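ok trying this again, last paste got cut off
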Amino acid sequence: MRKNTIAILILVVLFAGATLVFSDNDRKNKSELYRQVGLFADTLAIIQKDYVDETKPKDLIYGSLKGLLSSLDPHSQFLNPDDYSELKEDTEGKFGGLGIEITIKDGLLTVITPIEDTPAWKAGIKPGDYIVKINGDLTRDMTLMDAVKKMRGKPGEIVNLTILRNSQKALLDFKITRDIIKIKDIKEARILEGNIGYIRLVEFRENSLQEFNKALSSLSKQKMDALIIDLRNNPGGLLDVAVKITGRFIPANKMVVYTKGRQKEQNLEFFSDSKNAITGIPLAVLINEGSASGSEIVAGALQDYKRAIIIGTKSFGKGSVQTLIPLSDGSALRLTTSHYFTPSGKIIHGKGVTPDIEVQSQKEAEVKDEEAKAKKAEQIFDYSSDLQLKRAVETLKAIKIYKELTP
């Protein structure tokens, strides 16, 4: 009797959700789905009856939903009420953490980028590092949410990470102390040689556009006649901010990015709206393997419109849209619903943005040079050893000379 009750309950819940799907797909797969739902209900009932330890229906359902979402792609997740509540709190306040943007790539927990000036950055974590263990726990079957929860926590506590770094073909151990993560949107804004402006944008957050516009205004007053936007190790952030910053350099009403999903309402287009766009000066954008999401939207659009020369290395390739869907018991689905495309139709997800001029970053030996260390300690801005930035400066110089020679 108990088995039948549980089976009926599961069937009712899942059939109610399935009805919407059938209406959009002409019910052609209805019988197959009903059969698979019945299989699931039977399995659940058998576990309830015969498993060695007593189980709670809620735990079984939550476990099933967790596996269901994780089987779709690395970014889709089932969030129980506590996880969902924690996610909402993270978007509203400060938290103790390491300062690492992570994803799951090729089945491995992967660093998108360490955020500059955070504990992870200072410890030497690099884009593309695979996190093998967190505090001794293997990450092979760990979800993104579980990994984030293990790395976040009380400031001042040590988190032990075991990293696999392909370039060194070795496992590296790091002891990193949690801190309150505070992100400064604009890391640098200055005039380099030859009236070339330089802005380093660390992330696309709520105040980033305002700070970016302030930097542009300041550089313009210093007679800026060319600009480098540094998006290296920028993991993205708010979509609307990325769109508006792109719009500062292309005419109004130009498509910046569009999304495409299975449902009509998931197909969205985003356009530039700046009335005072800066279209007359040469522009270069720096990207690398730590540039993701919003950074790729900016670089991809400016490249498509031939508005900027993209310099550096191929970007990360994070171009999917996750929608939070609250459920009735306080839990939620974080579901991938569409992908980003550049104006010309190039997909970002899994592909990234390929630079117009590929320049590898300087070797680690150069970074560890004692003179470079001393300059960093003294907070002196020096780009003489930054091969990518140097190439951007040289490229913009050449463009300015060409413009002067062109009648």
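PB: full thing came through this time. Residues 2-55 form one domain.
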